[in-house]
Amino acid sequence: MSLVSLLGLAQAELLGTQLGQLLIVLIGMLIVMIVGRIVLKIAWRLVTIAVVVVGAALLLSTFGLL
Cα separation of 42 and 25, whole Å? Predict the structure, then answer.
């Protein structure tokens, strides 16, 4: 057997166990959380900008300047 096939066999045995599968699921959850955190960071900024713009437009229209 070559080294690559031995490593593949060892990896398949490790990831085939319940703990190995749990590790895969946890890594997947970690990736989803990191991506979600980045998306939410952008979303918070967009919402904050929208609130400021709409608030300014409301004030300007209240005083008849818009």
Answer: 26
Per-block average pLDDT, block size 10, for the chain (66 residues)?
55 75 91 95 95 96 87
- Give the residue among 61, 58, 38, 62 at the shortest CA–CA distance from 50: 58
Report d(CA 30, CA 32) in Å as an integer: 5
Q: What one-character DSSP code corresponds to residue 53? A: H
* Angle 22-34-13 from CA coordinates, rounded to 5°: 25
The DSSP-derived string for 6-45 is HHHHHHHHHHTSHHHHHHHHHHHHHHHHHHHHHHHHHHHH
Which residue matches tokens 């066999």? Answer: 9
